[in-house]
Design a protein that fits this description.
This protein has 336 residues and is of the alpha/beta class. It has helices at residues 33-36, 44-66, 85-102, 111-117, 162-172, 179-187, 212-223, 231-260, 275-288, 304-316, and strands at 2-7, 12-19, 23-31, 75-81, 106-110, 130-135, 140-147, 150-156, 264-268, 291-294. Bound molecules: 5'-O-[(R)-(carboxyoxy)(hydroxy)phosphoryl]adenosine and zinc ion.
Length: 336
């Protein structure tokens, strides 16, 4: 089964061709970072307009790179939410029209579930059931995942998402957007113990997260520093901040394993590309005998391959969406 995936929920226009739910034949992503950088965040109106320009050539490139024509497609999977509805609608309308014209099945895919499905592209691939941490700019959510269409929320951030915090602290430090990779590069080799920062909700007995207190504490520490902040000090602050986020994520994942007695864990989403998170989580998993899967780095940040993988699984089970499918902005638990 050859499936075309389309992703346009934020600032990346992406199209991918995936065979048999596992083999990525192509994944072409048109990133808009350059258009949003001066605003230090994504401007929804700009994002929708750029998707409009990019969607057709991106899909065309994905088909070309895969060496197939649209007629070879067996199915089409498109992100239908959560995200920026104006952006999602561009990919969704394009995907619906293409599926209709080709007469092939079409399925709407939940973006957060697609992030988790990226772990099926890991080597070896993740197997169900697992505890899934989707950690990105929009989400820090823990799920008990029996299958891509059968999962339950077991913990979530009560305020900011981890990636959002990375972006805000990077902006304050003048490191630009997106903040996660910028902080990771800047903090390399610095002292992650130099600043004492709070780790909210650590060991509070719940699987929920809270990052706004850590963000505020980091900004307050910055206010007390001499201006301009000496670079080694700024690097140490960035490293301490990064470590605090990582410590909370790792600790909550260990709590989730204890609570659910399930020892298979998946980490996916943009922040899963963070090397410090990977190294810390891998060490903790080894110690606690946890079977750990990270989404491959290439498929951590938004991409259409993960959408095609999740969509393939749904289509294999005979799940399709009708052409009246709409987009949605917020996390929904009961969508397929
Ligand atoms: O999954 P994604 O592309 O979009 C959302 O669904 O939100 O995630 C983007 C987020 C941004 O906040 C970005 O700063 C963060 O993921 N990110 C990282 C890294 N790469 C991307 N955070 C920490 N370390 C990274 N290497
Ligand atoms: Zn995402």
């Amino acid at each position: 089964m050859i499936v075309l995936g389309i992703e346009s929920s934020c600032d990346d226009t992406s199209a991918a061709v995936v065979a048999d739910g596992r083999k990525v034949l192509s994944c072409v992503t048109f990133g808009q970072e350059a258009f949003h950088r001066k605003f230090s965040g994504v401007v929804p109106e700009i994002a929708s307009r750029r998707h409009m320009e990019a969607i057709e050539p991106t899909v065309r490139s994905a088909l070309e790179e895969a060496g197939i024509s649209a007629k070879d497609l067996d199915g089409l999977a498109v992100t239908s939410g959560p995200g920026l509805v104006g952006s999602i609608l561009v990919g969704l309308a394009f995907g619906k029209a293409l599926a209709f014209s080709l007469g092939i099945p079409f399925v709407g895919v939940d973006h957060v579930r697609a992030h988790l499905a990226a772990a099926l592209l890991a080597d070896p691939p993740a197997e169900f059931p697992f505890i899934g941490l989707a950690v990105s700019g929009g989400h820090t959510h823990l799920f008990l995942v029996k299958d891509i269409d059968d999962l339950g929320l077991i913990g979530r951030t009560l305020d900011d998402a981890a990636g959002e915090c990375f972006d805000k602290i990077a902006k304050a430090l003048g490191l630009g957007y997106p903040g996660g990779p910028a902080i990771e590069r800047f903090a390399e080799g610095a002292d992650s113990k130099a600043f004492k920062l709070p780790k909210p909700k650590l060991h509070d007995g719940t699987l929920d997260f809270s990052f706004s207190g850590l963000k505020t504490a980091t900004l307050n520490q910055m206010k007390n520093l001499p201006r301009p902040i000496p670079e080694p000090t700024a690097k140490n602050l960035a490293a301490s901040f990064q470590q605090a986020i990582v410590d909370v994520l790792v600790s909550k994942l260990l709590d989730a394993v204890k609570k659910t007695a399930l020892n298979r864990v998946v980490v996916a989403g943009g922040v899963a590309a963070n090397r410090t998170l990977y190294l810390n989580m891998a060490a903790a998993a080894k110690k606690a005998d946890i079977n750990l899967f990270f989404a491959p780095t290439a498929y951590c940040t938004d991409n259409a391959a993960m959408v095609a993988v999740a969509g393939s699984r749904l289509l294999e089970k005979g799940k399709t969406s009708d052409l009246g499918l709409n987009s949605y902005a917020n996390l929904q638990q009961n969508t397929p």
